[in-house]
């Protein structure tokens, strides 16, 4: 099995374990998939974005928000580079990161991210994209 295929399997297994609440077993699989995809595709690949977001979400769910926040930051940077600043994938990362920030009492930052995500989602509903640079 090639390395990217291995990463796909690891990420899929980690998703199942994570959903079952078996986070201790899921975490190393997310980390290994992330390393494989980053090595093979670079830091801004959509697979890397997904792996960063999955791992950050797991860490945040465990209350490990100090570890999760930098991963969400990397994920946000990568997703914007991969898809552009007004893509729905960006909105998803913004929402996840905002939830993490709320747990750390960084409510002003969380509110701004949630508002930016809402702006992106509404723009897709109406077909009007926000001007570049209006959210971050």
Give the SSE map.
Elements lengths: L2 H17 L3 H19 L4 H16 L3 H19 L4 H16 L3 H20 L10
Helix pairs in contact: 1-2, 2-3, 3-4, 3-5, 4-5, 5-6
Descriptive notes:
The chain is mainly alpha-helical. It has one domain (3-126): Alpha Horseshoe (Serine Threonine Protein Phosphatase 5, Tetratricopeptide repeat). The protein is built from six helices and no strands. Helix 4 packs antiparallel against helix 5. The N and C termini lie far apart (39 Å). 37% of the residues are buried.
- Count of individual helical segments: 6
The count of domains is 1
CATH topology, which one?
Serine Threonine Protein Phosphatase 5, Tetratricopeptide repeat
Strand tally: 0
pLDDT averaged over residues: 90
In helices, the fraction of residues equals over 70%
How is this structure best summarized?
This protein has helices spanning 3-19, 23-41, 46-61, 65-83, 88-103, 107-126.
